[in-house]
Design goal:
Layout (H helix, E strand, L loop, with lengths): L1 H8 L8 H15 L7 H8 L1 H4 L3
Length: 55
């Protein structure tokens, strides 16, 4: 995640909100681990879980 933030600081990536950053990192992790196959809709749902968690 910090690498993504660093790349945003130097304008290598467009500015993203927290959800966008989390989704980008999720996609990178899943792409690096071919055995973890999720549909786009499943990735979207997983990315939104933090919003449904109780604190």
């Amino acid at each position: 995640m910090f690498q993504t933030l660093d790349r945003m600081k130097v304008c290598e990536l467009p500015m993203l909100n927290a959800d966008g950053i989390h989704r980008r990192v999720l996609d990178e992790v899943l792409d690096d681990h071919a055995s973890l196959k999720l549909l786009v809709s499943e990735r979207d749902e997983l990315n939104q879980i933090l919003h449904r968690m109780r604190t």
